[in-house]
Amino acid sequence: MASNENGEAALREAIAAERSELAELLAGLPEERWDEPTLCAGWRVRELVAHMTMPYRHSGPRVLLGLLRSRGDFNAFADRIARRDAVEVAVDELAASLAGNARHPWKPPGGGYVGALSHDVIHGLDFTVAFGIERKVPMDRLLPVLPRSLKDKGVRFFGVDLDGVELCADDADWSLGSGEPLRGAAQDLLLVLCGRRLPKGHLRGAQAERFTA
Fold it and tell me: What percentage of the chain reaches a pLDDT higher than 70?
């Protein structure tokens, strides 16, 4: 029991640190840059941060009602809410919401605190990588969210075709899949798993262009 509690506490500290650091970056971002695209297709920084902070700004019953209106399609619901809030909520309020909820206990359904950490890490990379910000996610935050198998539910959720490709991290003892090596930083390979197309220069290998914008 103590080991589980310690593990959960470590995850919550990692989540708080990640949110705080991202909120600091966003607080210093000129407002016009909030209109620039991220790696999350179709979303500017405005929509992205609106989505990241949705769990803190919308109650559970309100989210459930929205899901019902979207006929249970979470992606459609999340996109609709992100686009609406990106217009209705000021960017300084969005940044403040992330900062003020660094220790919020939200967990995605069925995902636990690993899922919450994954959510923050991935969406943080969506804008830092798109902007060319030289930020490395600390390994103690990154390693817990890297899948260990192609059968991992996160891999299945994004449905990326990795047939004939082995992801090989340069900066961690981590690989996934089998076939032609695709090399890069572990955080960039995580984005590949999430279906993102990365800027040139982030990936190396015969398959790099397949996953490059």
Answer: 99
Beta bridge pairs of residue 206: none
* Angle, alpha carbons 67-79-115 (nearest 5°): 75
User: Are the CB atoms for 89 and 82 separated by under 8 Å?
Assistant: no
Q: Pick the closest to residue 82 from 45, 129, 34, 37 (CA basis).
A: 45
Q: CA separation (Å) from 103 to 42, 97, 113, 187, 202?
A: 29, 11, 11, 23, 32
Locate 207 and state its tokens.
């398959």
Cα–Cα nearest to 131, from 40, 39, 20: 39
Q: What is the pLDDT of residues 19-33, one digit of tens each?
A: 999 999 999 999 999
> Which residue in 124, 136, 144 sits closest to 202, CA to CA?
136
Q: Is the pTM of this model over 0.85?
A: yes
